[in-house]
Amino acid sequence: MAQILINAVTLGSLYLLFALGMSVAWGTIGILNFAHGSFFMFAALSAHFIVQKVALPMPIMVLLGMVVGAVLSVLTQMLVFDPIQRRSTDHHRAELQILVGGIGISSILLAIAQHVTRSVPFGFSNSTFHIEVYELGPLQVSNIQFVILSVAVGMSALTAWWLRSARAGLALRAIGVDSEVATLMGVDRRRLAFGTMAVSGGLAGMAGILLTYYLGSIAAETGDSFLIKAFAAIILGGIGSVTGVITGAMVLALAETIVLTQMSGMWASAVAFGLIFVVLLLRPRGLFGRKEVRRT
Q: 49, 69 in Cβ contact below 8 A?
């Protein structure tokens, strides 16, 4: 049981790193980015091609993935989401256009990745980082699991502190409550939106690199499956809540791990959507959803 718990927490940490930026962007600047999974995958793919030419250590690979994810996210905001938000006079229509725009960007990146990899899984075989497994009594824990858990704890704490204490974080939360009032008070919504999307894409890229190290390889379609899991974790915990997305990611990962060890992998997605359905019935705002938060 302890080994199952360790594996579940590792998987939940990866879900958390992937979903954290997505949740903050959705809960504050009102962007539900369906291209988030493609940023995650494309960051790992870019690192894969670079590490084939030059053997790099893991910290450089993680940094590289974060840069690729952040650049893709900022470009998407600049070329797709920001023009939609500036030109649209109807909030709900803008949300639908952003959804469609995100799906379009995701489809383009996925098609490019499938073409260049021919749908063959890719990894970091030339990296200087090597997986080592430690025996702790009956338990087995690898060095990449320690890295994933440490990074997830650090990034969650940093994000929570920034949103609650930093001036820019408070301004971002004000946008999530009422963007019009926040703008009248001098908050630069566009600048914060670009910053939020950069951080969100960077976290997605980091998660892509760490997942590839953890599994050994990923496929071009892995980002789409992670997007579904992140969506489930955010809905479970409550949109825009750091505590909520931590809880949602861990509950989802634990449920999936138990299903995988006791039943069949075919039921893993059914568990994710089943949890969404139950939470939407009992708590439409999620476990830690706040009534005062509304998307702009």
A: no
Cβ neighbours for 59, distance < 8 A, ≥ 6 positions apart: none
- pLDDT one-digit tens code per residue, 145-194: 999 999 999 999 999 998 888 888 888 888 877 777 777 777 788 888 99
Stretch 199-221: mean pLDDT: 93
Instruction: Write out the two tokens for 23.
Output: 């949740």
pLDDT tens, residue by residue, 175-186: 877 777 777 777
Contacts by 180-188 with C-beta closer than 8 Å and gap 24+? 180/296
What Cα–Cα distance (Å) separates residue 48 from each residue in 25, 95, 203, 286? 27, 34, 18, 37
Instruction: State the DSSP string of 117-141.
Output: HTT--B--TT-S----EEEETTEEE
Task: Give the whole-angstrom CA distance, residue 48 versus residue 45.
Answer: 5
Per-residue pLDDT of 218-243, as tens digits, reads 999 888 888 888 888 888 888 878 88
> Phi, psi at residue 212, to the nearest 5°?
-65, -40
Gap between the Cα atoms of 198 and 66, Å rounded: 9
| Residue linked to tokens 């690192």 | 47
Q: Which of 250, 293, 255, 261 is nearest to 273 (CA)?
A: 255
Is the distance from CB of 287 to CB of 238 less than 8 angstroms?
yes
pLDDT score of 272? 66
Residue 134 has pLDDT above 80, yes or no: yes
Chain position carrying tokens 């955010």: 234
Instruction: Determine contact, residues 3/258, Cβ cutoff 8 Å.
Output: no
Q: How far apart are CA 103 and CA 246, in angstroms?
A: 25
**Residues near 108 by beta carbon (within 8 Å), at least 6 away in sequence:** none
